[in-house]
From TrEMBL:
Gene Ontology BP term (one): nucleosome assembly
Lineage: Eukaryota, Fungi, Dikarya, Basidiomycota, Ustilaginomycotina
InterPro entries named among the record's database cross-references: NAP-like_sf (IPR037231), NAP_family (IPR002164)
Family: Belongs to the nucleosome assembly protein (NAP) family.
This protein's name: Uncharacterized protein
Region (Disordered): 218-259
């Protein structure tokens, strides 16, 4: 396949056209969020009466459960609601709230995490916009009741440096600690990816995750990888087969069906 380039004058017109497309897509996103939010509010009012709905829903997401250890589960058992608030003017700015019942770990009734687009983020409506890759956040302060109950202190996230320095992404390997450390009290990866999964996958599909009908984003990619591998293997098998033209010539012609 060959790649072709447009004449500069044509490319300029196409770039301007793309801006118009992005503006329309941005309007569609805003309209969709405006119409969906009351429905989410109504849904949440119903499911928040279901005992331990959100703790069970969280644990049913494999992509999130990997960041939750046994002690996190105990603390998250007091989770009574998850809420998502988007900026009406720029939905890329979003805050997720975890509402808790009284518990033995911290005194906070609500733990919130806000994400805003980085300065170099693609505009709303752009196909190239990536929430996880271009969102920024700040640390959420948790008021732990004691050092003994401070899960972030007992199990902090760590960066293991291998043959390099912390600035070298390839040399730095994050060892996730407590969910509260890795998500709420962190500002670097994988916090934005966790936020992306919570905000754009788990929250809108909470009912599916609770019932077990949901398919994790990672599972979808895994299935695609398995399909690709099987396809490649079949393709390799076909390539390995030799075609014997002489043998084909020796075969008698197929009989024609009598009319």
């Amino acid at each position: 396949m060959e790649a072709y380039e447009f004449d500069p004058a044509v490319q300029d017109k196409l770039d301007k056209h793309e801006k118009k497309v992005e503006a329309v897509q941005a309007d569609i996103i805003k309209y969709s969020i405006e119409k969906q939010q009351p429905l989410f509010d109504e849904r949440d009012e119903i499911i928040n009466s279901v005992e331990k709905f959100w703790p069970k829903t969280l644990m049913n997401s494999q992509g999130l459960a990997v960041f939750i250890d046994d002690e996190d589960r105990e603390a998250l058992n007091s989770l009574k609601a998850i809420r998502v608030d988007r900026d009406s003017k720029d939905p890329r700015s979003v805050t997720i709230h975890f509402d808790f019942n009284d518990n033995e770990y911290f005194s906070d009734k609500t733990l919130s995490k806000k994400f805003v687009p980085a300065k170099d983020a693609e505009p709303l409506g752009s196909d190239d916009y990536d929430f996880a890759e271009t969102s920024e956040t700040t640390k959420t302060t948790i008021h732990w009741k004691s050092d003994e109950k401070n899960l972030s202190k007992k199990n902090p996230s760590k960066i293991n440096i291998e043959n390099g320095n912390e600035a070298d992404d390839e040399a730095s390997i994050l060892a996730p600690g407590s969910f509260f450390s890795t998500f709420f009290e962190a500002t670097t990866e994988p916090v934005a990816h966790i936020g992306d999964r919570l905000i754009n996958d788990l929250y809108p599909r909470a009912l599916e995750y609770y019932t077990g009908d949901a398919i994790d984003i990672d599972d979808m990619f895994d299935d695609d990888d398995e399909f690709d591998e099987e396809f490649d293997e079949e393709d390799d098998d076909d390539d390995d087969k030799e075609i014997d033209l002489e043998e084909e010539d020796d075969q008698p012609p197929a009989k024609k069906n009598k009319k």
